[in-house]
Design a protein that fits this description.
- It comes from Prochlorococcus marinus subsp. pastoris (strain CCMP1986 / NIES-2087 / MED4).
- This is S4 domain.
- GO terms for molecular function: RNA binding.
- InterPro entries: S4_RNA-bd_sf (IPR036986).
- Pfam families: S4_2.
- The chain is α+β, with helices and mostly antiparallel strands.
- The chain has a single domain, classed as Roll (Structural Genomics Hypothetical 15.5 Kd Protein In mrcA-pckA Intergenic Region, Chain A).
- About 30% of the residues lie in helices and about 20% in strands.
- It is built from two helices and four strands; from the N terminus they run ααββββ.
- The protein has a four-stranded antiparallel β-sheet with strand order 2-1-3-4, with no helix packed on it.
- A hairpin with a 2-residue loop joins strand 3 and strand 4.
- The longest helix is centred in the middle third of the chain and has 9 residues.
- It is globular.
Length: about 60
């Protein structure tokens, strides 16, 4: 699953455009590092962080 799809699936964003803005602004971290590629493929066990929330891709 791609990062932007994951954010929509977890209701962090309501649209792909909103996901793009959040990701490009550096507000999303994957495995502790800022991620700027919205098409990044998540693999099992990846930790996605937004603000103080941490979600694990399973």
């Amino acid at each position: 699953m791609k990062l932007n799809q994951f954010l929509k699936w977890h209701n962090i964003v309501s649209s792909g455009g909103e996901a793009k803005i959040l990701i490009n602004s550096g507000q999303i971290k994957v495995n502790g590092e800022i991620e700027k590629k919205r098409g990044r493929k998540l693999v099992k066990g990846d930790k996605v962080m937004f603000l103080k929330s941490e979600l694990i891709f399973e």
